[in-house]
Amino acid sequence: MTLKIRDIKENLTYLALWLILFLTPMISMGIRSTTDSGFEFNWTEIFHVWRIYGVYFVIFLIHNFLLAPILIYKHKKLMYFATTICLLSVFFVYQCLQRPERPMHHKFSHHHEMMDRGPQQLEKMQDMRTKDFEDAFDDEAKPMHQRGKRHRRMNPNDKPPFGFGPSDIIHSIMMVLLLGMNLGVKLYFKSDRDEKEMQLLEKKNLEQQLEYLKYQINPHFFMNTLNNIHALVDIEPEQAKTTILELSKLMRYVLYEGAKSSVLLGHEIDFLNNYITLMKLRFTDKVKIQIDIPSIVPEKLVPPMLFITFVENAFKHGISYKEESFINVKMRFDDNRIYFTCENSKHEESIAERGGVGLQNVKKRLELIYGENYHLDIKDGTKEYTVQLDIPLEGVKT
Predict the structure, then answer these.
(1) Which residue of 16, 59, 151, 391 is 20 to 30 Å from 275, comparing CA positions?
(2) What number of CA atoms fall less than 13 Å from residue 221's CA on the CB side?
(3) C-beta separation of 100 from 49 below 8 A
(4) SS3 (DSSP) at 322
(5) What pairing do the DSSP bridges indicate for beta strands 287-292 and 300-302?
(6) Read out DSSP for 289-300?
(7) For the segment 363-395, what is each residue's pLDDT rounded down to a tens digit?
């Protein structure tokens, strides 16, 4: 099975757990041999334990790389449970066919037990063994039908070649728990990978949506600007030339800065000032335009072309050639946040035109970029229209 990079962490976890399991008998026997002077370090017992662990390890490998993916990745429950039951049945039959060997430490412990007994106890045990031997000899000398049932002391580890005992049940339960643990770990890493993939997918989707919104804003912005230049060509040719120069600056900003995810706040403010300067060329002194932006701007980042939509709408819907009009643009900075305000006069002829794609797009951008960490308040009064925006400022990455 070809391993992917994302599976390395999972397999390293399994490797660490199995290494700990296989090293445990050595560590345990080493500690016991150092603390107990009468106990000897015995590699035979360790190899005996490792042989048992080896069977578990083989079953684990089969389940981890062949069976578990059927359930977790292919979602074939019936096939998984059928194959897993077959695997457990083979393991159970194997356990029943194996005759456990008497561990070597029994002989050594029996020897130490004999050495610890007193002379009287040893003599008594010898007499008991002699009597058992004589009874067995007499019983064998009798005819077959006269022999009594001779009971011998059975070793708890001795059993027929095929049998069913408590140890078999314990081994089977341990194997089921092992496979369950394998499924749990694999599901954990799969859910972790799925979560990261979902975050990456959401991030790419967010970037695509933002690009789509930018492409919608830019044509709308340039359409209005070109309409303004067209109006100036016949009325004020010189102003039209100046407007074209200002427009080239705006296009340069949109081309090189608008494609970025964030720009310096100072550059965004310069872009906004250039646009307002361009728009002022169209109007007389009857239109009052006030810009209140601090000269010292923090070196922070903001999304490009975020404020232009509100100012553009103010010029589009807040100016009347019949009545006096005003546009006020303010900015202030406090605690790594920017507070933007745009106010404009409201006239009867512009009420029906209120709304549009630009304002909807900027709201969508704010939701995608900031989530709930922004505040947009739009007040549509009878004589004035006010937009207040509060967003966080992002630090410059070094």
Answers:
(1) 391
(2) 28
(3) no
(4) coil
(5) unpaired
(6) EEEE--SS--SE
(7) 888 888 888 899 999 998 888 999 999 999 988
